[in-house]
Amino acid sequence: MVAQYTVFGRQVGSHYLSMATLGTTFGLSYLALRKKSPAKEQTPATQASNSDEEAFIKEFLRSAEAEGTKQKH
User: Fold this and answer.
1) Across the strands, what pairs with 13?
2) Where are the alpha helices (DSSP H) in 4-50?
3) Do the Cβ atoms of 59 and 48 come closer than 8 Å?
4) What is residue 27's predicted lDDT score, i.e. its pLDDT?
5) How many CB atoms lie within 10 A of CB 28?
6) Of 2, 25, 40, 64, which residue is the least packed, with the fewest Cβ within 10 Å?
7) 7 pairs with which residues across the strands?
8) How far apart are the first and last CA of the chain?
9) What CA dihedral angle connects 42, 45, 46 and 52, to 10 degrees?
């Protein structure tokens, strides 16, 4: 037979208490240490006067982004 403890007026076995303790410990540590994906940054709306200008702005931003990531590594 296992040791019994009184918790909130009920008899609880020691093996249930140990499982609850381990589950809580590992569950909380998992939640605290998991990697969170960074929120995708919203770019401001481009206010171009025509479609050519809008395409130029988007291409410039793409190339600047690629150049910036190349310099980081």
Assistant:
1) 4
2) 14-33
3) no
4) 96
5) 10
6) 40
7) 10
8) 61
9) 90
